[in-house]
Amino acid sequence: MQGELIAIVGASGSGKSTLLNILAGLDRPSAGGVWTSGAALFRGQDLSRLPERELVEFRRRSIGFVFQSFGLMPLLSAQENVELPLHIIGVSWRERRRRAQEALASVGLGPRARHRPYELSGGEQQRVSIARALVTGPEVVFADEPTGELDTTTARSIIDILRRISAEGTTVIVATHDLSLAAAADRQLEMSDGLLKEP
């Protein structure tokens, strides 16, 4: 459902990250398909059968992805890291700058925009990663263990940001071991023995 925060829980090795990668179009399933219902350009299509070029376009315009390890470019500032997806899809320099500044401000990092990843704490790096995932205005944000490497207080702030994102209408799907994050979700799904089910 649009605007929902969905937590996928399960033991290590149960396939949570693999499922997120398939749903986001980062990997293709070995069998079956992945049908879209939201993305206007791709509505009703099986992502697993899209040509690579169209799949790349789907990822660029319809989804955001937050990686557990942050996935930031070390030599770029926070601002430049957030601008990167906009640069790739051809947004003008001025518009990139404006949208990146808004995205960083929305996660409380406006004053840290010029800092490089090594100058930021783990929680700040994760917030940069979230801002980067949001900057293109995706319909769905996928987050793989977004609180996995963070202390309890910092994890709580990330959970609050993810809740706010979903409350503003963006669907957020997370794979997590974090019981606090799972409890904050609108819906929990459990990955067990390769099957996704309601607990």
From TrEMBL:
GO annotation, cellular component aspect: plasma membrane
Keywords (A to Z) from UniProt: ATP-binding, Nucleotide-binding, Transport
Domain ABC transporter, chain residue ranges per copy: 1-199
Leader peptide range in chain numbering: none
GO MF, one example: ATP binding
Protein name: Uncharacterized ABC transporter ATP-binding protein YknY
One Pfam family matching this protein: ABC_tran
Cross-referenced InterPro entries: AAA+_ATPase, ABC_transporter-like_ATP-bd, ABC_transporter-like_CS, ABC_transpr_LolD-like, MacB-like_ATP-bd, P-loop_NTPase
The keyword Transferase appears for this protein: no
Organism: Geodia barretti (Barrett's horny sponge)
SMART domains, A to Z: AAA
PROSITE patterns reported in the protein's UniProt record: ABC_TRANSPORTER_1, ABC_TRANSPORTER_2
